[in-house]
Every structure is written in structure tokens, then in C-alpha cells.
Design a protein that fits this description.
By secondary structure, this protein is an alpha/beta fold. The chain contains 10 helices and 9 strands. Strands 1, 2, 3, 4, 5, 6, 7, 8 and 9 form a 9-stranded mixed beta sheet that branches. The two termini are 14 Å apart. 47% of the residues are buried.
Length: 245
């Protein structure tokens, strides 16, 4: 499987604190069936001020560590960008790392504030789209406003955004509200990818295999493959490197 959202790089955000913790998480990802990971780093104003060069450097260094440890996991860097007025400026300055490019779009992992969908969010999304950046809205099923009313996501999907939900939400490990919302988004056919959003092995482990198996039961194997392998490969720019449905 291909994981487009996983906080694997040590010491940069609320993911692993040390290289040892990161290696343990990497081994767990491999055991869970993941082979390629977008090593995700938060950019959250006033909390995590991670910029492109540092993210790329950390990813390169940790990829070398994985190779030395013979862990069969390949990486590419990406920024998880919190929706904020400053984000548009950072995108324009090249300080945000895209997930990958496909069909002319640069894919951006876009995080809405936890409390809801702020005014002006759709305007910001349209500005990104006009600049050739296609937002992938990450874990909307854990956003309080969207949990209360999944229809709040509709304008973003209709504008052209993609949607990623969390593997643990699919299997109910983020609680009943996130489970219900993830099922509603799946029922609307608004979900484009399932990712681990793993941070550690204590409370945020990867749950990709469990989510894939459940999706196979809920729909079918082809759909589970689409959300955990084929679409993620496209969005990561891996379509030429492996077969994609």
C-alpha cells in the first residue's frame, strides 16, 4: 500500500520524538503492508514552523537511515499545511512541499482547523486551485463542523478538492462520531484516499490493513485497492513507477 499521510520524521512535529521511535514506526508500517510513505510534517502557524528545505533534508537523512537498517520502506517528503492566510504566501514562495504532481496538478495536503470550517476557507481553496495546487483535505471526518454536518464538505469537493480519511477512523478507533462521518463521506463517494496519519505506536499506530480489509467487506477489493494503492500512487506522482488501475 501507499500511505500519503504519515508523521514519520523524528523531532519535527508531534510525530516520533527520536530516531528510535521513528524506526519502530517504520517497521510497524512495513508490517502493516505499507511500502511507500509520504513522510508528512505539520506546518501550523505558531506551533510548527517547518519549511520546505528542512523537511526535504530530514526526509533524505531518514531515508538513508532506513536503508542502513534494511527497512523496505521508501519515502518522499510532504507538508501538511494548516488552512491559514499565511499558507497562500508560503505556497507562492515555495516553502510548502507538494505531495506530488499528476495531470498538471500539484497536490497539497490541506488541514482544516479542528473546531470547524472557518469563513473564507472556500475562497482560499479556490485561490490554490487557480495557482495549480489541488488541495487534498486531510481527515475531515475528525473536524467537528463536518462531523456535525458532513454536507459542509460538499462545496470543497464540488470545487475540485480531493479527500483523505484516516484508516483508524474507518475502523472506529477515533470514536463513533468520526466513524459515522467517515461512513457518510464514503457513502457520498467523496473519499479519494485512506491514509494512516500515524504518529507513534502508543496511540496513533498505522491501521491500514484493518481499514483496507473493512473496505473490501463494505464495498469490494477493487475499491479498497483504489483508496489505499492506486489513487495514492497517482497523487504521489508514482503512476509511472508502478501499475495503477
Amino acid at each position: 500500500m501507499n500511505d500519503i499521510h504519515c508523521h514519520l520524521l523524528p523531532g519535527l512535529d508531534d510525530g516520533p520524538r527520536t530516531a528510535t521511535e521513528a524506526l519502530d514506526l517504520a517497521r510497524s508500517l512495513v508490517d502493516d503492508g505499507v511500502r511507500h510513505v509520504a513522510a508528512t510534517v505539520h506546518w501550523t502557524p505558531g506551533v510548527f514552523d517547518n519549511r520546505a528545505a528542512a523537511i526535504r533534508q530530514a526526509c533524505t537523512a531518514f531515508a538513508a537511515t532506513l536503508a542502513f537498517e534494511n527497512i523496505p520502506l521508501t519515502l518522499q517528503p510532504v507538508t501538511e499545511t494548516r488552512l491559514h492566510p499565511e499558507a497562500l504566501e508560503l505556497v507562492a514562495r515555495g516553502e510548502i512541499v507538494a505531495l506530488g504532481t499528476h495531470k498538471g496538478w500539484k497536490h497539497l495536503l490541506l488541514e482544516l482547523p479542528d473546531a470547524g470550517v472557518p469563513p473564507g476557507a472556500l475562497t482560499a481553496v479556490n485561490a490554490l486551485l487557480q495557482q495549480g495546487w489541488r488541495p487534498i483535505i486531510v481527515h475531515p471526518e475528525r473536524n467537528k463542523g463536518i462531523m456535525a454536518d458532513p454536507e459542509r464538505l460538499r462545496p470543497f469537493v464540488e470545487a475540485g478538492c480531493l479527500v483523505q480519511i484516516t484508516a483508524a477512523s474507518v475502523i472506529g478507533e477515533f470514536g463513533s462520531a468520526a466513524l459515522a462521518c467517515s461512513r457518510a463521506l464514503l457513502d457520498h463517494n467523496w473519499v479519494d484516499a485512506v491514509a494512516s496519519d500515524a504518529h507513534n505506536l502508543r496511540g496513533r499506530p498505522p491501521r491500514m490493513t484493518a481499514a483496507r480489509e473493512l473496505l473490501s467487506l463494505l464495498v469490494d477489493d477493487d475499491y479498497a485497492t483504489l483508496l489505499t494503492e492506486s489513487n495514492p500512487a497517482r497523487y504521489m506522482g508514482l503512476a509511472l513507477l508502478q501499475p495503477v488501475a
